[in-house]
């Protein structure tokens, strides 16, 4: 279950609550992956420089919401106001590999990143998937510029070798503030059609729908029906369309589309797909806007999908577990084994994480798999962690194996308990008692007694 969010946040700060946006109260099964594409994140120079040094407020906000629910930030990419975040359930981590990010500027003839696209690609259970968040040029008359820019973004090449181009991925999701408008019709007809919920009257004049009929590079992209109000342009903190002097005509600027490569090949061959070829299916379960959010002049849009795929990668590359009882009173041992073809590296490491860890760098401590190795045979290897690095207060933790070659976590242990350091706790209790006795009021009452 995949949930994609696109939202032009208009330089605003995060709202108090995103429960409905992320469908956290849904009665169905929990989402497996969240993909969040934002446009117009505050990129004033002071904000942007601080965001480069630290996580930006939106990333921190979504991490704080999702990490207690068992999601980690898998990857992110930022280009000025464009931000793309991917969160995933822990259980899927060993099956997501070859994660890479890229961006393409299209503002000021490619020199400025206020417009363009950011992308994250990966191998998901052995299938190649790419997510692309775009912000295309505004205004009614710029349809051709939007199409030209998107064609340029589709030519985006990931820097590493052996990575397919965007259109060669098994699945490509395209979303963002695409800025396509409703042509020809006047503002009164558009608003009247919206008020009467007769959205179908406007579909044929939607610039993206029109372009899909004549532009070859768009024809393989699929979109769900636009059965929600146009998401632009609203007065802030309201569901009232633009009342300013400009009175912008409403439009479906915020969209989510997708493209499945084997369906495109099937169309070109004009033959039935065999059962072996039907390794991937994408089902749109929900395509809606969220009218309750008013921090910007756009309403967020979400697409909820079911992805079914025959796993080409079905067992973790690395299996690992803690040995014996863990506490900070002694050094501890980790056992792990890797599949025969696993490309290990000197720079691989095993991290100790709290079960609610937020991203791959959120470790408590780590051990280098080569430098800290204490035994090795054909079946398994052992690595030690120094007692001084183990949390004294204990708690629930997991171990993760990070592959430098694959740039991802390729193995994760079952959650386990670290016992509190009894010696240290007894010392702390004794010190607390001494400190209590030394307080003047307590000392006086003690002497009286």
UniProtKB/TrEMBL annotation:
SUPFAM superfamilies: DNase I-like
A biological process from GO: negative regulation of glycogen biosynthetic process
Gene3D superfamilies in the cross-refs: 2.60.40.2840, Endonuclease/exonuclease/phosphatase
Taxonomy of the source species: Eukaryota, Metazoa, Chordata, Craniata, Vertebrata
Gene source species: Crypturellus undulatus
Protein origin, superkingdom: Eukaryota
Protein known as: INP5K phosphatase
One Gene Ontology term, aspect cellular component: endoplasmic reticulum
One MF term in the entry's GO annotations: phosphatidylinositol-3,4,5-trisphosphate 5-phosphatase activity
Residue intervals of the Inositol polyphosphate-related phosphatase domain: 1-313
Family of the protein in this entry: Belongs to the inositol 1,4,5-trisphosphate 5-phosphatase type II family.
């Amino acid at each position: 279950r995949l949930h994609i969010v696109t939202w032009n946040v208009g330089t605003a700060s995060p709202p108090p609550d995103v429960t409905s946006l992320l469908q956290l109260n849904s009665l169905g099964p929990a989402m497996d992956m969240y993909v969040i594409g934002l446009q117009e994140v505050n990129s004033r120079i002071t904000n942007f420089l601080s965001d480069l040094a630290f996580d930006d407020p939106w990333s921190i906000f979504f991490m704080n919401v999702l990490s207690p629910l068992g999601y980690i930030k898998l990857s992110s990419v930022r280009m000025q106001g464009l931000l793309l975040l991917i969160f995933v359930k822990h259980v899927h981590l060993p099956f997501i590999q070859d994660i890479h990010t890229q961006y393409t500027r299209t503002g000021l003839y490619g020199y400025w990143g206020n417009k363009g696209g950011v992308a994250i690609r990966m191998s998901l259970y052995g299938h190649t998937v790419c997510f692309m968040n775009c912000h295309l040029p505004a205004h009614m008359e710029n349809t051709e510029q939007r199409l030209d820019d998107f064609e340029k973004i589709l030519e985006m090449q990931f820097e590493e070798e052996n990575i397919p181009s965007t259109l060669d991925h098994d699945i490509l999701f395209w979303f963002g503030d695409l800025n396509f408008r409703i042509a020809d019709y006047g503002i009164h007809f558009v608003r009247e059609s919206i008020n009467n919920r007769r959205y179908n009257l406007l579909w044929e004049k939607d610039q993206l729908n029109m372009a899909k009929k004549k532009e070859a590079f768009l024809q393989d992209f699929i979109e769900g029906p636009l059965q929600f109000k146009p998401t632009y342009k609203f007065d802030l903190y309201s569901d009232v369309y633009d009342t300013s002097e400009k009175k912008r005509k409403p439009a479906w600027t915020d969209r989510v589309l997708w493209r499945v490569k084997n369906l495109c090949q099937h169309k070109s061959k004009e033959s039935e797909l065999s059962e072996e070829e039907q390794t991937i299916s994408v089902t749109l379960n929900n395509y809606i806007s969220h009218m309750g959010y008013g921090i910007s002049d756009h309403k967020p849009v979400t697409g909820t999908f079911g992805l079914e795929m025959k796993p080409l990668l079905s067992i973790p590359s690395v299996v690992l577990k803690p040995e014996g009882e863990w506490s900070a009173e002694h050094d501890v041992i980790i056992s792990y084994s890797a599949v025969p073809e696993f490309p290990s590296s000197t720079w691989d490491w095993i991290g100790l994480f709290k079960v609610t860890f937020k991203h791959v760098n959120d470790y408590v401590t780590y051990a280098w798999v080569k430098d800290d190795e204490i035994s090795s045979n054909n079946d398994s290897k052992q690595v030690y962690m120094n007692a001084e690095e183990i949390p004294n207060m204990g708690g629930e933790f997991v171990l993760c194996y990070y592959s430098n070659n694959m740039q991802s976590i390729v193995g994760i242990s079952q959650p386990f308990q670290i016992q509190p350091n009894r010696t240290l706790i007894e010392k702390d209790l004794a010190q607390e008692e001494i400190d209590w006795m030394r307080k003047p009021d307590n000392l006086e009452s003690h002497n009286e007694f």
